[in-house]
Amino acid sequence: MSKSMSRSPFGWSNRGGNVTVIEAPIARSYRRRATIAFWVVLGVVGLLAATVASHYLHPIVGALLGGIIGAVLGAVTFALIVAWPVLRVFWHWLPEIAFGLAAVYGWTALMQSTPLWGSLLVVALVVGVPAAIAPVRRRVMALVWCLVVRHRLRLCFAAFIATNRHGSLPLILPAKPTPAGERVWVWLRPGLSLRDLEQDGHVQKLAVACWANEVRVMRASRRYAALIRLDITRREPLAATIVSPLPDHVPTDMPANAPTSPGMPPVGLDLPDVPDTPATLTAETPRPRKPRNPTTTEASPTNGFDPSDYA
């Protein structure tokens, strides 16, 4: 079997019947960091716990108790670091998981408390009312697009955004809808910067992957350079045609010689007392020229200040 046929369409390796959820280099890196963290927590927490326990118990019993506490906390730290790549996947799908659990448990509670026709009626109202009311439907679709954009950005980061030496991708924070599209906050990991997203046309690739018109990347905090903001533009809200209701308030039976308001500016001016002559100078009366360096004996109005001192 060729190398291209040994991987599934989702990127999982099915060679030998094993499914690789986490790549081997990333798994080794996290395992090495988890081992170091285990020994550090064991030493620090165990020593502190043994010191405190020795004041109340026998020193040997206190040392054993401190070692046990340090080992337990070190094991918890080891498990969290090793499982973080999997926990990150749960973080990416947290809204969908929460919505699925709410739907399942909500339907179960509804079926237990109401008859079948009542449950179907409630479900029809919950689904049909937002679908029938345009503002509610647009709001729901905007929230759905926020979920879609988070997944599209995650795929973009895994595809062409450079990671750090540990293979950690940027952490995608919550998103919210805007009149033009969506706004997503992203926390960059050590080894990444805002320039990594702006080089080699990555912004245009983000727009293509998010099915958007334009993507703008900027800093979201003056204090933390790792917190950036992505503004995704799908539509131009200022380009839409707004129908004004003012023409409906103008009466249609207004006569042609109706008096105008005194506050309106006159359309045309007819001033017969003012001669219509151009204000131009003739050749016989040349414009007087001011001497370049006048010598005056009058006191200067600038209280003794002479600009020539600074020339």
Helix-strand sequence:
HHHHHHEEHHEE
| Number of extended strands | 4
Counting helices, strands and paired strands, the structural category is alpha+beta
| Biggest β-sheet strands, sense, barrel | 4 strands, antiparallel
The radius of gyration computed from the alpha-carbon positions, rounded to a whole number of angstroms, is 37 Å
Q: Provide the β-strand percentage band.
A: 5-15%
What is the overall silhouette? Answer: elongated
Number of helices: 8
- Read across the widest sheet, the strand sequence of neighbours is 1-2-4-3
Helical percent range?
A: 40-55%
Low-pLDDT windows of residues: 1-14
Distance between the termini: 88 Å
User: Averaged pLDDT, please?
Assistant: 78
Describe the structure.
The chain is built from eight helices and four strands; from the N terminus they run H-H-H-H-H-H-E-E-H-H-E-E. The model is unreliable at 1-14 (pLDDT under 50). A four-stranded antiparallel β-sheet has the order 1-2-4-3. Helix 1 runs antiparallel to helix 2 (59-82) and helix 5 (116-132) crosses helix 6 (134-159). By secondary structure, the chain is α+β, with helices and mostly antiparallel strands.
